[in-house]
Amino acid sequence: MPPREVPQVPSAAWLQAVRWVFDPVRYMQDCTQTNPDCFATAISGSRGDRVIFVQQPRILQYLFAHDRRELFAPGDGIAVLEPLIGNTSVVTLEGEPHQRRRRLLLPPFHGERLHIYSDLIAQITRHEAARQPLNTPFRAHRLTQQISLQVIMQSVFGLERGERFEEIRRLLTEVFDTFASPWWSALLYDQRLQRNWGPWKTFLQRRDKLDVLLQAEIADRMAESESLRTDVLSLLMAARDDSGAAMTPLELRNELITLLLAGLETTSTVMAWGLYWIHREPEVRRRVLEELAQVSADAPPSELARLPYLTAVCQETLRIHPPVPFTFVRIPRADLEIDGWRFPQGCRIAGCIYLLHQRGDLYPQPDQFRPERFLERKYTLSEFMPFGAGARRCIGEALAMLEIKVALATLLLNHEFALADSRPERPLRRGVILTPGRGVPLRIIGPGRLSS
Ligand code: HEM
User: What's the total number of domains in the chain?
Assistant: First the structure.
């Protein structure tokens, strides 16, 4: 039988682009109704190209197992972010230069080295949570953003607290807040809106101020004679490529912003959703607290990351709300036939993480938050892929998982929380990420087991 053509979503391109920005979850759900395996969208706004979304595990398995050989992972998959991250960072490089940069970046994010960050994560979490007043509603997402921001500023940038730290922290928060609503996110998706006025102008001004401070930090660090630092920036500054060349200050700046952008909203969003579900589902909360009660008061924070039920809660959170709903684009080098579908040479394919995680054949009653599924069954990478797979698999996966688990456990050990709003949370676009729409209103209602 000849392979089938991937069906195109029938509605007008402009309407798809609008729905993708303003109502992405319903858009994906509607598309999958008639096309449960894959469909070709027209979501790229002013760029106009079609992207094929795939949510069938067999096709995904093939695509990511053949990444690099039969497929190409272009550097324009996240072109909407170029005004912020520049064009020399790991996400915008492609081919051999991309692989070389990944080889430079991966070591600081893996292995034992990571566990030195767990004390830092616990300490930052305790400090930030202690600033919340008792019995007063606050947005959990704001709290988790501050935790993630400081974890990245200290573990990746190696910034020490002081005037520059506070100024960078303020500017970064403002830069990210530029895209806090779907309306402002539309700016990223449509280059015709990127004019030197209004919110785009404000964004450019904040970005330029931030650049001055980052370049100053890089210059100071380059002037240091000898360094015992273990942060990612120091390791990148010391690294040399195959020809013996070091990264330039501009390359270092672009990489820092990329890591921050990739790691901040993603991780803080998962923590906020995690707090939401733990406090929405009494049985989940009971089991998490029961597990935490077994941890001795003087156990190192890295031990928290090994708790099985807490790990399952984090996996279920990443399943039901993957903050990045799709992988970067992959392009076949020649015509491909996979599982009876034809993917022509040059077409643009993205793994649709959101729809994959909603498949009823993999996750019965997918709308229900059930961490137990991850204790009852082991999912393969093509069935559960919140961090993508293959040539562009997330570099920060291990750091993110460590941070989410240690921060959630530290919050629950030190405080007793309750939801401050009983209405269900819905995902809302913030830039390229889906975040909890109301930011998860919470209250601290008492001390936790370990609060002093
Ligand atoms: C819960 C947190 C996170 C999630 C859900 C997440 C998800 C993803 C996804 C889906 C991709 C694309 C993978 C693909 O196309 O196959 C990606 C790429 C990437 N992520 Fe993450 N990420 C998270 C945290 C982080 C952190 C903490 C960092 C670093 C500080 C980071 C750095 C990166 C980088 C640099 C890439 C691009 C890799 C490349 O182009 O080769 N991410 N991430």
Answer: 1
**Biggest CA-to-CA distance, the chain:** 69
CA–CA separation, 222 vs 215, rounded Å?
Answer: 10
Q: How far apart are CA 292 and CA 160, in angstroms?
A: 32
Q: Ligand 1 pocket: which residues have CB below 6 Å?
A: 90-91, 102, 156, 258-259, 262-263, 266-267, 270, 323-324, 327-328, 386-390, 392-396, 399-400
For residue 416, tell me if it sits in a domain.
yes
pLDDT in tens, 83-111: 777 878 898 888 888 998 898 888 878 87
Say yes or no to pLDDT of 436 above 80: yes
Identify the CATH number of the domain in which residue 339 sits. Answer: 1.10.630.10
Report which residue type is found at 156. V
Q: Evaluate whether 406 touches 304 at the Cβ level (below 8 Å).
A: yes
Q: Which of ligand 1's atoms lies nearest the C-alpha of 400?
A: 27
Q: Give the count of beta carbons closer than 10 Å to the beta carbon of residue 316.
A: 24
Q: Determine the pLDDT at residue 452.
A: 61
Question: Is the per-residue pLDDT at 326 higher than 90?
Answer: yes
State which residues form the domain around 167.
4-447
